[in-house]
Design a protein that fits this description.
With 436 residues, the protein is α+β, with helices and mostly antiparallel strands. The chain has helices spanning 3-9, 23-26, 30-33, 62-72, 118-139, 186-191, 215-224, 253-269, 284-293, 304-309, 330-356, 363-371, 384-393; strands spanning 13-15, 20-22, 42-46, 49-57, 81-90, 105-115, 145-148, 160-168, 173-184, 194-196, 202-204, 206-213, 241-245, 274-276, 298-302, 311-316, 322-326, 357-359, 375-380, 402-407, 428-435. It has 3 domains: 3-224, BirA Bifunctional Protein, domain 2 (2-Layer Sandwich); 241-338, Anticodon-binding domain (Rossmann fold, 3-Layer(aba) Sandwich), CATH 3.40.50; 357-435, 2-Layer Sandwich (Translation Initiation Factor IF3), CATH 3.30.110. It has a 5-stranded mixed barrel. Strands 14-13-15-16-17 form a 5-stranded mixed beta sheet, sandwiched between helices. The protein has a 3-stranded antiparallel beta sheet with strand order 2-4-3. The longest helix is centred in the C-terminal third of the chain and has 27 residues, at 330-356. The protein binds ligand 86X. GO terms for molecular function: ATP binding; proline-tRNA ligase activity. It is an enzyme of class 6 (ligase).
Length: 436
């Protein structure tokens, strides 16, 4: 089943809550807000006059939504409540803001769901995570690993955090692609979200929250981009095929333009996102470079020879290969090429990512792999103190190493295996590395 169909089957309700949060509402979450507090942006003035009380811009919407959840949920018949909101949020980042990757304002969807039982919540956490994996791999052609965050890296307000993690080989850094949290009953306690169960008793709800952000665009750009610019996966490319006339001084310019228009029309009719670049003030070569920079997967060139032979030339953005195909096969061949392009991007990215994974067992191997910009899979004792210690011991200009996740896909862990950092018995294999 396609991702879109799966999402529809979740029966999420779209919501939109306000952008501004009053101090007193934001403070309801005071227990774990402390660490985040420096990132909260406050509006203090209108024009030149100070506001009576500063008002915060949402960094996330728990405190905005959950007071309403508390009012709306009365009985087990009000559950599950499945809320999804698309909005922008603001987090005043100090360290190295980077477009799309870490920016002070970003766009996301935040899902907030409420269940009667932990089992339902647990199941949904993984359903959502699988959808995030599929969006990354099937649409953005970015390979990711599903896994669980360590106690140190999880969302402190929740019970446990799962994530999809990508890796950027060029910089040797891991990057969190999206998260799906089980919040447990922590917020139910804070916001008094209870329901009457079938037996007529008051019970506390179980909650999840999950988000996918515009960071995914940054991950996609870094994964596929090259020295010529963007490379967009066909499934998400706004223009999949750019058609460029290649006129020659004394050639049949009108015929060429007509053939180009007809190619665009035929492709559009077949549901393919094709566009014509008919600008006369730019040379074909200049246009090739520009559309390459913009990452358009396929370029079609039609010149006098193509017109005469009733063919078109198709050039791929990913590997530069050129093929001449009869105009009659246009739709069929473009479909084949776009599918191949999409598959090739994921395969290439996966091969590159996999080539960066090293399995280590000792501290020396860990440091060597870290200096070598690798994605490290290491046997770990799963103790918070040890992760803190690794962070402290690897602190430096490039940033400290940390756990990215404990992948669900675990290699064998022979008994007697010890933690690379502490020498204590290893509990699991975890991904470690520097990250964004
Ligand atoms: C944690 C948790 C959670 C809904 C998600 O990861 C998915 C979507 N939210 C977000 N988090 C904060 O709670 C937070 C709070 C404040 Cl006040 C802040 F300034 C920054 C924050 N960053 C993350």
């Amino acid at each position: 089943m396609g991702v879109a169909e799966k999402i529809k089957k979740l029966k999420l309700k779209p919501y939109y809550f306000p952008l501004f949060v009053t101090e007193n509402v934001l403070q309801k979450e005071k227990d774990h807000i402390e660490g985040f507090a420096p990132e909260v942006a406050w509006v203090t003035k209108s024009g030149k006059s100070d506001l009576e009380a500063p008002i915060a811009i949402r960094p996330t919407s728990e405190t905005v939504m959950y007071p309403y959840f508390s009012k709306w949920i009365r009985s087990h018949r009000d559950l599950p409540l499945k809320c999804n909101q698309w909005c922008n949020v603001v987090r005043w980042e100090f360290s190295n803001p980077t477009p799309f990757i870490r920016s002070r304002e970003f766009l996301w969807q935040e899902g907030h769901t409420v269940f009667a039982t932990k089992e339902e919540a647990d199941e949904e956490v993984l359903q959502i995570l699988e959808l995030y994996r599929r969006i990354y791999e099937e649409f953005l052609a970015v390979p990711v690993s599903k896994g669980r965050k360590s106690e140190m890296e999880k969302f402190a307000g929740g019970l446990y955090t799962t994530s999809v993690e990508a890796f950027i080989p060029n910089t040797g850094r891991g990057i969190q692609g999206a998260t799906s949290h089980c919040l447990g009953q922590n917020f139910a306690k804070m916001f008094d979200i209870t329901f009457e169960n079938e037996k007529g008793e008051r019970s506390m709800v179980w909650q999840n929250s999950w988000a996918y952000t515009t960071r995914s665009i940054g991950v996609m750009v870094m994964t596929h981009g090259d020295d010529k610019g963007l490379v967009l996966p066909p499934k998400v490319a706004p223009i999949q095929v750019i058609v460029i006339p290649v006129p020659f001084k004394d050639a049949d310019t009108t015929g060429i333009k007509g053939a180009c228009e007809s190619a665009v029309y035929t492709l559009n009719q077949a549901g393919i996102r094709a566009d014509l670049d008919a600008r006369e003030n730019y040379s074909p070569g200049w246009k090739y470079s520009q559309w390459e920079m913009k990452g358009v997967p396929l370029r079609i060139e039609i010149g006098p020879k193509d017109l005469a032979n009733k063919q078109v030339r198709i050039v791929r953005r990913d590997n530069g290969t050129k093929v001449d195909i009869p105009s009659t096969d246009l739709v069929e061949q473009v479909r084949v090429l776009l599918d191949g392009f999409q598959a090739n991007l994921l395969e290439t990215a996966k091969a590159k990512r996999d080539a960066c994974i090293v399995i280590i067992s000792t501290w020396d191997e860990f440091i060597a792999a870290l200096n070598d910009k690798k994605l490290i899979l290491a046997p770990w004792c799963d103790e918070e103190e040890v992760e803190k210690d690794v962070k402290a011991r690897t602190k430096g200009e490039l940033g400290a190493a940390k756990t990215l996740c404990t992948p669900f896909d675990q290699p064998d862990l022979p008994s007697g295996t010890v933690c690379f950092a502490s020498g204590k018995p290893a509990q699991k294999w975890s991904f470690w590395g520097r990250s964004y």
